[in-house]
Sequence to fold (343 residues):
Amino acid sequence: MSATIAVAPGLAAAGLSKSVPSLSQELVGEVLRGLTRRGQKTLPASWLYDAIGSALFEVITLLPEYGLTRADAGLLERKADEIVAAGSPGAIVELGSGSGTKTRFLLEAAVRQQSPTSLGYFPIDISSAALESCAKVLAAIEDVAIQPIEASYLEGIRAAVSRRRGRERLMLLFLGSTIGNLSPAEAAGFLRAIRRLLQPGDTMLIGADLVKPEARLLRAYDDPTGVTAAFNLNLLGRINRELGGDFCLARFRHEASWNPKRSRVEMHLRSLEAQRVRIAAFDLEIAFRAEETIWTESSYKFEAGEIPALAARAGWHTVSQWIDYDWGFAETLLAVPRIAKHG
Ligand code: AVJ
Fold:
């Protein structure tokens, strides 16, 4: 997420360096490296979110089997006043602009509690389409100055920090259990890097999906309607569309499994037969064995106490936590302490 990835060799030759903006060039480099790896093939989870994938994800959030987004939104709706009072932000910075539904509860609470000055809202996303739709949805809220930032998360936070007015506090939002896409080590590194960009008193609200019975998790990630399967298979469709691939989607099957040792749901695409796939942009043919998988996403699930523990390792102090026990979801409010104990 924060690491700079070298642009894959061969991309310039394929003419992609001109047509693809630099951030997605990083992503394209990850696609190439993931598919040509010896051993387990991978695709980056962030490749899931093109226009089709983002629309499919919105449908996933409506599925009865996928309670995550409803639990997150419900908690924010019920606790917005308490959360905002605990952080007293002058501006709100959101990592991943989302659909705006959840953010609205917090922005409205912040406006209610705000002194005469208007509230700043900085949604950060690498997708300009996502930023536009989020701005459109939230534009109706009065007294909020929306300033979209098209950038990676860390770059975006840096930009938001540079626009801080006086000594106002920032509240960062990292909702929807997006933190679950990172390994615990990556998450700790990410939280530490963020903390270093901020000032004492700044806060960060993290939404995290909690461990729940395996059957419930598997239904959430392999729903009977097949939306998650389509969401996963679209990774291959996107390679076909954007990189000149010739994947036959019917020759792959969506799979979700629970890895109890690592406490994560894993999504894979399993090759149903031995096959070779050409990707024109890479001038490359990729061989799949029958039953071989591409690992496409990890979705870590947490015990409620793990978020404060992870945050503490990254030098954050935990202010408060709000939990939905019906689905199993936690909102944790962190603050940058006056003196950080860990570098
Ligand atoms: C948006 C990363 C939180 O991991 O639950 C939904 C994405 N993947 N169904 C998640 C997702 C499969 C989602 N996050």
